[in-house]
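Journal club prep — side note

Before the paper discussion, L.F. wants everyone to see what a predicted structure for a comparable chain looks like in C-alpha cell form. Sequence:
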Amino acid sequence: MQISVTPDVFKLAQVFTISRGSRTEAKVLTVKVEEDGHVGWGECVPYARYGETLENVTQLIESVKGPVTRQGLYTLPAGAARNALDCALWDLECKKAGKRAWELAGLPKPGPEITAYTLSLAEPAEMQAQAAKNAHRPLLKIKLGTPDDMARLEAVRAGAPKSTIIVDANEGWSAEVYADLAPHLVRLGVALVEQPLPAGDDDALIGMERPVPVCADESAHDCSTLSKLKGKYDVVNIKLDKTGGLTEALRLREAALAEGYKVMVGCMVGSSLAMAPATLVAQGAMVTDLDGPLLLAEDRDVPLVFDEDGVHPPSAALWG
C-alpha cells in the first residue's frame, strides 16, 4: 500500500467571509492510497480553529505507513488527517470490491438531499442583494456573529422572503446576546441556530429557553464529545473533517439519533471530493449543508451534481 498527499487550491467564485476572516480560495489536501492496482481518493480541509495547518496535517498523513485499515486509523486524532485517509480507504475498498460505498456500509441506496447555500458575511445591503440573487433556493444559511447581526438578518429575510433560513453564529455571541436575539429569530422564521456561544462557554445554554433549535458545531466532534452536549443542544452538526472520516461520522449519526438529537451534516469549504462521502451521512438529516462546491469557481474533473432536488450522491468516477 502506498499513501501520498498533495496540496490543491480551488479558487472561490467570490470572497467568502465569516466572523473569523475572509478567503478567496479553498486550500485542501488530497490523499491517494494505492494497493493491488487500485486507487482510492480522499480530501480534507485543515482548519485553523482546531490548530490544523496544511503543513502539520500533511506531516500527520505522511506519518502513516501502509498497509493500514480504517480501524487502524483510530490511532490518529479525530480531524482532517484521519478524514482524508479514512475516505480514501473507503474508496479503495469500493474499487477492490466492485461495490458502492453505501453497499459496503450496509445503507439504503442514497438519493439527493436539499442543501443549504451559505451567504457570505457582508454589510446588510450586500447580504440582501445576495439573498435576492439566491431567493430561488429553498434553504439559505447566514454567517453572523457580529454586533450588527439583526440588521443583516432583517436584510436577508427581505431579500429572500420564502426561503428557510438557518443562522451560524460561529461562536460569536454571548448568552445575553443570544437571549436578546431569540425572539427575533422566531419572528423572522429562522429554523436553526448553529453554535451561538463559544464551545468553552456553552454551559450557559443549560436551562435557557431554546425557541429555535440550537445546533452544536464546534462543541461536537466525534462520539466522545456527544456526552458533553446534554441539556445544551438539540441538533448535532456532523462534519467529516471533525469526526475524522466517514467511519466515525456514521457512528456519530447513529449515536446522536439514538440519544434524541437531530442531525445536521456540514462541511468546510472544499471540493466535490470532500462532500462526496458526506452525502451518505446526510440521508434523512434535519439539515444538509454541503454547499462547498457551489462556492467554488473550479472543482474536481467529475463534480457532484446540484440541481432543484439538491446535492446528489457521487458517481463512482468521483468517489465511492
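L.F.'s comment for the group: Residues 189 and 256 are 26 Å apart (CA to CA). Keep this in mind when we get to the figures.
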